[in-house]
Amino acid sequence: MIRVLLADDQALMRAGFRALLEAEDDLEVVGEASDGAGAVRIARELKPDVVLMDVQMPGLDGIEATGRIAADPGLGGVRVLMLTNYGLDEYVFAALRAGASGFLLKDADPADLLQAVAVVARGDALLAPAVTRTLISEFASSRPPDQPTAGREVLTAREQEVAGLVARGLSNDEIADRMVISPLTAKTHVNRAMTKLHCRDRAQLVVWAYESGLVTPRRR
Fold it and tell me: How far apart are CA 168 and CA 53, in angstroms?
């Protein structure tokens, strides 16, 4: 059973999400919050598997709330799936940097939302299809990469290559095809890179790849 917390300032939106999620046998809505502060407080109380977090809320916004959840040692198992009405805006990369595991548009198909919750709950990152591969690069280019991050040297050349492909939005199967290795080997390289860099999930690995300078943003 995947336990979900809904955080959105619109009651009608929360009601719609609740009805959709609770129609599934393996999903349970355990709480609701109408602002970011409430989302953080309830997350600490209930420790859900996934928080469906609206970006724009009064007071503490969704990005700041996500940052607080991700930074709380007691909430290491809580994953945040960001929801917004907008696609190409400044929130995408900010949400990933704050610790979000996924980013989805509110007008996504119901089936896509259900799949997104399942993907994020198992610890994977949801960066597509709602957020395209090029989108990640475009928003990364809004801020220049920092100096190479400490820890880059702990990765083998193979792991750095894999991390770069993850940052470009490739799945394990696509990485395997690109590098002519098995999907299992690709997954092993990804997991080892995340472990060495202390990344919670693939989304944090994407952020690290850009901020370390391992991957440079593509320019239009």
Answer: 24
H/E/C letters for each residue in the chain? CEEEEEECCCHHHHHHHHHHHHCCCCEEEEEEECCHHHHHHHHHHHCCCEEEEECCCCCCCHHHHHHHHHHCHHHCCCEEEEEECCCCCCHHHHHHHHCCCEEEECCCCHHHHHHHHHHHHCCCCECCCCCCHHHHHHHHCCCCCCCCCCCHHHCCHHHHHHHHHHHCCCCHHHHHHHHCCCHHHHHHHHHHHHHHHCCCCHHHHHHHHHHCCCCCCCCC
| Nearest C-alpha neighbor of 181 from the set 192, 194, 172 | 172
172-179 vs 157-167: helix crossing angle, rounded to 10: 130
CB-count exposure of residue 8 (10 Å: 0-12, 13-18, 19+)? buried
How would you class 64 by CB atoms within 10 Å of its CB: exposed for 0-12, middle for 13-18, buried for 19 or more?
Answer: middle
Q: What is the reported pLDDT for 101?
A: 85
Bridge partner list, 53: 7, 82
Tokens of 29: 């809505």
Q: Splitting the chain (220 residues) into consecutive groups of 10 residues, what average pLDDT does each group show? A: 96 95 95 97 97 92 94 92 71 79 84 89 64 51 52 88 86 91 93 88 80 68
β-sheet bridge partners, residue 5: 31, 51
The structure tokens listed for 213 are: 């300078």
